[in-house]
Amino acid sequence: xxxxxxxxxxxxxxxxxxxxxxxxxxxxxxxxxxxxxxxxxxxxxxxxxxxxxxxxxxxxxxxxxxxxxxxxxxxxxxxxxxxxxxxxxxxxxxxxxxxxxxxxxxxxxxxxxxxxxxxxxxxxxxxxxxxxxxxxxxxxxxxxxxxxxxxxxxxxxxxxxxxxxxxxxxxxxxxxxxxxxxxxxxxxxxxxxxxxxxxxxxxxxxxxxxxxxxxxxxxxxxxxxxxxxxxxxxxxxxxxxxxxxxxxxxxxxxxxxxxxxxxxxxxxxxxxxxxxxxxxxxxxxxxxxxxxxxxxxxxxxxxxxxxxxxxxxxxxxxxxxxxxxxxxxxxxxxxxxxxxxxxxxxxxxxxxxxxxxxxxxxxxxxxxxxxxxxxxxxxxxxxxxxxxxxxxxxxxxxxxxxxxxxxxxxxxxxxxxxxxxxxxxxxxxxxxxxxxxxxxxxxxxxxxxxxxxxxxxxxxxxxxxxxxxxxxxxxxxxxxxxxxxxxxxxxxxxxxxxxxxxxxxxxxxxxxxxxxxxxxxxxxxxxxxxxxxxxxxxxxxxxxxxxxxxxxxxxxxxxxxxxxxxxxxxxxxxxxxxxxxxxxxxxxxxxxxxxxxxxxxxxxxxxxxxxxxxxxxxxxxxxxxxxxxxxxxxxxxxxxxxxxxxxxxxxxxxxxxxxxxxxxxxxxxxxxxxxxxxxxxxxxxxxxxxxxxxxxxxxxxxxxxxxxxxxxxxxxxxxxxxxxxxxxxxxxxxxxxxxxxxxxxxxxxxxxxxxxxxxxxxxxxx
Length: 766
What we know:
The protein is an all-alpha fold. It has helices at about 1-5, 10-30, 35-45, 50-80, 85-105, 110-125, 135-155, 165-185, 190-210, 220-250, 260-275, 275-285, 290-310, 320-350, 360-365, 415-420, 435-440, 445-465, 475-485, 495-515, 525-545, 550-560, 570-595, 600-620, 630-645, 660-675, 680-705, 715-725, 735-750. The chain has 29 helices and no strands.
């Protein structure tokens, strides 16, 4: 409580929101709107602590309201004579809208959510007077639009709070966590917790970028830079995971790590620390130091790259060489990605949006294979090294930095390693995945949640119609709102119970106001004062995420029960009837949700894990999306959804053994092998096809058993034999890619298996 009293931002937000609500109420009263209190309630529903979310929510609320009004005009006049059919149509509409809302996790989904339950707000109270339905729809739309406009105006004009400061702080925290994980990986320390946290943060990061587009117009140009930054952040996760995997495999082998490699790892860790948050903040506070800082950073990176090139072995059938070559490629990718992330972070801290890059759609480049696969066209620093400075953008044809081709491969035909080291400035031509393509969508769970909400609404309506309850329409509204509002949660019942509890408290407070305080109020200023006593503290609670679910049912239900009009017409019977209907409607939603819908975080986590396995099996079979960027983005999105659920999994659960980043690397290795196989001799193609079939069967088995299973020995034998077979193929791009892909697949699927010194002694595949 003391923290709340000292929270200036919370009280400023509360004062702004209350002023907007009172302004909306005053305009509604002056305009003789039938229910001006809905304008007041809308202000509290739309208002958010930051400007971007408020604008986004306002826009989509207006769209949802208009869509709900149109649906009501279609349904109610045609079905009003058959109440059960009308209720069924309303419930089906709610389910359909909620299904679409759950498929759109961003701000856009709010429009569908509103379209679903606003129909109940408009339609059920109008059942008794269907002849006036058009006027009712217009009136509700006017009230909601009025409240939305007031909320957005006050948020934009009165001490606006931009999304960007919070977003840049989030970026800084994310980069700190990434640097910590990087150090842990290079030092071979425990790193499970940081990477899961990073993945979960990136899911929220996408929503914040969407809000930036609705933020202060001066900041709109930051959205492309944020998209580029998020793309690099996504790639850092599998790259670091792959480095950890390769280091573990090399340590498990019989040969000791070269001293030069150990020193290189230490120096890369130190470089990551030097290029950390302090450096970015210094660049923001002292722009004149950017040039010097960039020069030093370029020199340091060039030195590290030269040392990597000097350590790079020849690509042959020696598995130790393959592991080392793969590790060194991952380290180069780490340097590139970290440079890009810091350049973008520095630009955002300076408040300077990135200039439009040539072929911007391709700038969100990803490697041509995953971070755990063997070979790929590396993402080079496509971000200008002097971003934010006049004329500082690197031209598309100029290399951002120089690389040295490995001497070991210099005499070979156009090999993979040569292609990697000679294309330092080339952008990937792969088109980026759209937001929809990159998201994991669980259609089954969305349909189940949507139908459950529709069933809860229909069940209440059957009771309402069965007992011929004249004032029961208010309960139908609240059943629809409650069932829809919490539908995205794994177990909505606890939140619904809290919503019900505070709705009861709101009923008590409303009764005190209506029958104890309002009779003594005779003018609008006095009304504002008595309302401020309750609504100002509630507004401060709305500002804090931990107390928002307490304040929201209080403020919305209190506003609805007060039913403020131009004249005082409170009636104890009508009030009790409305309050009972409200509590009963919410209670119905709670009971039915607890019986049919609550599944829990562990159940959802297992469903997500099985979906990941199905995706891997489909990739091995050659089905599904074969685009590497889309695959990686979707799997990382799945990891972001999975991470917070794994955090609350019970101790000893087999879910603890699931490493989704390893699964991502497996999948991208699969895609790499499917591409590289076309350039191999027929015998090697047959060997790779057999491996892919075994991988698909392995993951289908895991889906069938609903638990992780160890990789079969037959698959490991095939991998070792294929490494020997492919190693005998003449050197070239496809040979190198296949070899590095095979070793990546082997090390990912058989983490604890000892890698043999070389593959020459293994039997050939039939």
